[in-house]
Amino acid sequence: MSKIHATAIVDPRAQLDSSVEVGPYSIIGPNVAIGAGTVVGPHVVIEGHTTIGSDNKFFQFSSIGAAPQDKKWNGEPTRLTIGDRNTIREFCTFNTGTVQDKGVTSLGNDNWISAYVHLAHDCQVGSNTIFSNNAQIAGHVEIGDWVIMSGFANVHQFCKIGAHAFVGMSTSLTQDVPPFVLLNGNPAQAHGVNIEGLKRRGFTREQINGIRTAYKLIYRSGLTLEEAKAALAAEEQASPAAADQIRAMREFLGTATRGIVR
Length: 262
Prior knowledge:
alpha/beta; UDP N-Acetylglucosamine Acyltransferase, domain 1
């Protein structure tokens, strides 16, 4: 029995694994490729130059791979890539990239994307993230692995959010967020380290203590960012058990382009 519902419209040029399921009234465009085990629910539109991996689940009424919401876009064949084992809930909108940036919007593996999430053009999202309902991500944003975006959080264009950060409900982000930091508010303010998340992911006591020390150097010491980077480099040597995590925070400061939330 076919796994494509009789009312679905799948362009004959689309590349779908034989195990892909497509629900009633969904539309799959000609430049779409979908991997094994992926389930496309009813009333989903997948278009554009979109590549989707294996074992994903798309719930009803999402728009995936539509043209970027950018007035500079002039019909270029930019792309959207989605990895494996992602859950995309109702009414999500993911756009393709633009030639002014990387030309691709990407979502990694094992992400949980709740209803009404917008992922704009050229965004780069890692793996194992959680986006709660109505998280809104503007263009050119980079989000690391294991980040949690709470409901109604929104992110300004070109911001970066480091791995394992936690963004609280209704937070408005206009600056970059270092790894491991917990923040909330409008405007956003840092409120410590995402300790509970780190414990759940198996970080050791020594690693968490090292991250907390690094946080204090950035946020509580009164140092400039350049001074904080130097202090973090010294702390890497002094805390070998947490050196990788401290280095991640130091290197993030070197890539921040909008300043960091402080």
